[in-house]
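Example 3.2
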Amino acid sequence: MEKTLNKFRKSENFPVASLLLPQAVRKPILSLYNFARYADEIADSQFLEPEEKLIKLEQLYNAIDKKKSDELPYFLRDIFIHLNNNSYSKKHILNLLQAFMQDATKARYYSFHETLDYCQKSATTVGKMFLASKNIFPTV
């Protein structure tokens, strides 16, 4: 799975943690990206049933919620460094995982309200994580 994560980062249509950013900023961004990409791979997997996806995502959720790094795959454990130094809010990461859980069971959104609700948990949450973090962007 770790190789898959590196492959995805290099094949994105946008730069993930651009070299134009200070290194201190890139590390938390890559940590969050790897965590989110891993959860997204679970949610979008063609090989897992919705129930299996939810179990795996709930395991991630519980590991973050209870701050048990040993319950995460080793290549995701650095997310706790950034949780512990307040780069990221646990609440935001849990919201993001809720979006992936929704993604795992819901294939289509039938209204603007449903879509907006999903975006509040996913894209909006990621934006909030960066903008609200004084450790990542001290001037914000």
